[in-house]
Amino acid sequence: MLSYIGRRLLIAIPTLIIVSIFVFSLQKILPGDPVLAMAGEDRNPETLEYLREKYRLNDPVIHQYFYWIGGALQGDLGISLRTNQPVTQLIAAKLPVTIQLAIMSMIFAFAIGIPMGILSAVKKGTVLDYVANIVALSGLSIPNFWLGIMLILLVSVNLGWLPASGYEPFFRDPIRSLETMIMPAFVLGTALAATLMRHTRSAMLGVLQADYVRTARAKGLSEKAVILKHTFRNAVLPIVTLSALLFGELLAGAVLTEQIFTIPGFGKLIVDAVFNRDYAVVQGVVLCTAIGFILMNLVADVLYVLLNPRMRQAL
Amino acid sequence: MTVIPETGAETLGRQESRAWKKLKSNKIAIFGFAMVMFFIVIAVLAPVLPIADPNATSWTAIRQPPSAAHWLGTDEIGRDIFSRMIWGAQASLLAGVVSVAIAVTLGVPFGLISGYFGGWTDQIIQRMTDALLAMPFLILAIALAAFLGPSLTNAMIAIGLSAMPIFIRLTRGQVLAVKTEDYVEGARAIGLSHGKIIRRYILPNVFPPILVQATLTVATAIIAEASLSFLGLGQQPPSPSWGSMLNTAKNFLSQAPWMALWPGIAIFMVVIGFNLLGDGLRDALDPREN
Amino acid sequence: MTLKRLMATLLASAALTGSAMAVDLRIGLQEDPDVLDPDQSRTFVGRIVYTSLCDKLVDITPDLEYVPQLATEWSWSEDGRQLTMQLREGATFHDGTPFNAEAVVANIDRSQNLPESRRQSELASVTGVEATGEYEVVFTLEAPDATLLAQLSDRAGMMISPTAAEEAGLDFGNNPVCSGPYQFVERVQQDRIVLEKFADYWNADNYHFDRVTYLPIPDTTVRLANLQAGDLDMLERLAPSDAPAVQQDESLIYEDIVGLGYQGITVNIDNGPNGDNPFGNEAKLRQAFSLAIDRNAINEVVFQGTASPGNQHVPPSSPWYVQDFPVPERDVEAARALLEEAGVDRMAVEAQVPNNPVQQQMMQMVQAMVAEAGFDLSLKATEFASMLSAQTAGDYQLSQVGWSGRTDPDGNIHQFVTCEGGINDSKYCNEEVDRLLNAARETNEMEERKALYAEAQAILNEDLPIIYLYHPSWIWALDNTIEGFVAYPDGMIRLENVTMAE
Asked: CB contact, 8 Å: C173 with chain A?
């Protein structure tokens, strides 16, 4: 198993290279000149030309790429054209924020999605099943911004219970930090909960029909034991795959949610960077995201084996 | 399904007709189907329905609440929301369905190959998927908007491509789980071809999560179309789509809440319809259920 | 930020929050400012922060008169080529460096010669600055430049500590040291910028907050919700659609003023092959397009009447507005007649529109209006960076753009329509216009300048390289405990004499 993980981590390196090449080539494809985008209203050609030279934007892309790789290998991801800050510093500042948001929304999503999915599969065809489905699907169809703004208007403006937006680092003031994060995490969590719920339900339904579950029932095991021990354990595979993938949806959703609740996280960072053509930041963030995906997928694959030892050879 | 040879055709054919019967007897699924059809019919008939011009503006009737003259109210430049909803159905359904179809037709085969054959094929496909997942949707969208120009088709391609990885992964996960089952090992031992094993044993197990995911992605795709039209891809003004109507409504949530309400409800209904239909299909296709 | 500084900052902030008397002001901004270095920065929103952080040589009144700030008085030489300024005695920078003539010389030198400086073109007319006394400087100009004072009342005239600038170099923006009423404490990107009162400020008695926090909150609804929930004390750029609600809310104060900028449609006249089409070549078509637009309706529908309909580079309320050319009433008949004269029945035109909902709403109105006159206008939503590069490359036909506005009228027109103008994306070129606008730069006599602008306007009004639509207002919403706020047409937030009731 360890050698498997080791191999997988080695294979991650080519992935990261592919990703960085992708992003670099997009720099050429994307319309818009980074220096021009950041020139502001006045555009003095001499200053622009100087900046292009300074940031090596006039060099062939290949040169730029190797220059960047050289820096990256030494832990230097360049500096943000927009704010002159080192990209590593920006990422270090934003990452904890988004991780906190991600963890809290995941907690919401799992706590709502999985029990609802199990319940609705077990009670298939009953009113409970329909209600659970409708609730979950409305969570999916309600746009984040609508839910977010409505929550702010209700909870913060009318009731005055929670701060309307903003962010407080967890280790500076945990209570305040949780207060500012509850609403965004809930908003982000609802859509994920819907996805989780629907998949859990479907997977559970599949397994509930399987022979060994019938056998277990026939053996006179309690319904609770049948469901939790035999059914859910076997239904869990697609849910594991999905959880690794939800990480991606989480990031996509975080872009909007962070915008609404004004949380200075990854999502806001990447949007601003793309719109400003701040490529050093885009590169750094994408690379980070890629590492995140690779790790999540590795965890998912390892979980597969742990949950279903027969699959060891399949890997 | 004409390419399926010999016995496979027979069994699959029988399975199909049985599935069809099961689906027809499932009232909930039929209800879902009816909901989806309702919106499709509306979308198709929009040009011939006796409704107001969806692009006709009226400066004296902006952001009016629902009334006898405007059943669903008017928008920020005085257009009739009711007819914009009907005309918008077309763009939104296309964005939802076609992009999901793109994602499924590309994603499922890749996932099958990746999971079934394993080894280097698997590694290559999976690493490419990682790379694709890590690419921000925004960048892809801006690049496509610049190169292909603004059109609904391009928006559907962009959404489809970005939704593809999830289908690759889900398929692969299911394949991995099934391929170690005794009956698959057995089938391989007696020398069945890969094609047959995949069709007969693997695909039926792949379907349920894919169906679920596809019906869910319809919703995300409809909403995503709006953010794309905002970046110069997708439906361009003044033509309506539910997504872009929602997007505009965002600025008037406190002054004109109905502007967000109608497209929101419509998307919800379509999603419910597709999900109910998907549930029915799932039950009908499940070989173990009877 | 070094660890030592960080500790000092933390201690200072702990001390501040500890005292019960501390009065904090929280201001909601629409965007996150860029780098906080007056020489390198380029965003409008950054200037709002500078207003409290960095004093300038001169300031303006709401009526756009120049008043002393770090310079106490000034005079022009007979030939208009020398500007002598007396400087304020007793002003210091936040790091204790004294403010004097040497500091001014160092600052102008940095603005002109730092390769990264965005201020170079603003100070292009200045050939030298000399310290003629401890508190006196003389600017020497290549040619008379009526716009210099305006530049010195903005970022080019902001004085930063020469000591800190020397030490920090390009990283100055990460810890800016100026001489304004408030000094820099900390900045969290996209989250907040915190300033605290500078005790040694020369006018400290008139500044009543101990701490000012700027919070960028891009969503207008959320920004307003924060104000209503009491998490903000004031906000800038309220959405016009929220104006009626704020005006009716007794717990809030509404303030607005027509700004110095404009919004309009730039036409590609001669910028590459895309300018070579009937719309770019035939002025009559542009006149028809302009006549087909109901500017008042746009103002009422999109801006709730808060904006000012316009047809020139300055708003009708400006002393520089040429009254001979009033804002045209919509006249579809006349527009159709012009199309006929040009031998066109219907024509298709394409405009790029920034991807923000307000501009899109506005342009959809224009789309519907010009359709009645015979223009099939298609709108292409484009995000800012793509739009800008398309515009400079001439890869557009029409482009809906705006300008945040400058104190001196020259800043709103010269660089846009003169043949060699730095931002002339239309590539409109008319020698007579060049001559008139250059002449208007070279005299300080207002009446003379007005006459020159009127002549130029007569030509531009016919040629229409830019079809002006309206002048947006700056709108602020404040908590009703805030007193003494004065709206300035430059959109800045000046905190002098602003107080918060207990």
From this structure: yes
For A21, nearest residue in chain B (alpha carbons): B131
Please indicate whether, in this complex, the C-beta atoms of A32 and C388 are within 8 angstroms of each other.
Answer: yes
Partner-chain residue, chosen from B55, B78, B251, that has the shortest CB–CB distance to C357? B251
3-class SS of residue B235: coil
A185 to A99, A162, A258, A268: CA distances (angstroms) = 11, 13, 10, 15
CATH code, domain carrying B133: 1.10.3720.10
CB contact under 8 A, A44 and C120: yes
Cross-chain Cβ contact C388/A260 below 8 Å = no
Structural contact between residues A269 and A281, judged by C-beta atoms closer than 8 angstroms: yes
Residue A242 lies in a domain: yes
Rounded to whole angstroms, how far apart are CA atoms A281 and A88? 9
Query: Are A16 and A162 contained in the same domain?
Result: no
CA-nearest residue to B224 within chain A is: A143
CATH number of C55-167: 3.90.76.10
> Which chain A residues in 23-42 lie under 8 Å from chain C, judged by CB atoms?
31-34, 36-42
Question: Any idea which of B144-153, B154-163, B263-272, C230-239 has the lowest mean pLDDT?
Answer: B144-153
Contact A149, B255 (CB under 8 A): no
| Least-confidence region, from A23-37, C124-138, C169-183, C342-356 | A23-37
Q: Is the ipTM of this complex over 0.90?
A: no
Q: Give the domain extent around A273.
A: 97-314
CATH of domain C262-471: 3.10.105.10
Mean pLDDT of A240-268: 82
Bond into A60 cis (ω within 30): no
**Which CATH number is C23-37+180-258+474-500's, of 3.40.190.10, 3.30.70.660, 3.40.50.1970, 2.40.110.10?**
3.40.190.10
Q: B142 and C386 in contact by Cβ < 8 A?
A: yes
Domain of B186? Answer: 26-43+81-285
Which of helix, strand or coil describes residue C311? coil
- pLDDT tens column, B32-78: 999 999 999 999 998 888 888 999 888 888 889 999 889 899 998 89
Taking CB atoms and an 8 Å limit, are C385 and A93 in contact across chains? no
Question: Nearest residue of A to residue C402 by CA position?
Answer: A41
Using alpha carbons, select from A187, A174, A169 the residue that is nearest to residue C192: A169
Do residue A151 and residue A23 come from a single domain? no
Q: What pLDDT is attached to residue B6?
A: 40
With beta carbons under 8 A apart, name residues in chain A contacting B215.
Answer: 198
Structurally, chain A folds into a number of domains equal to 2
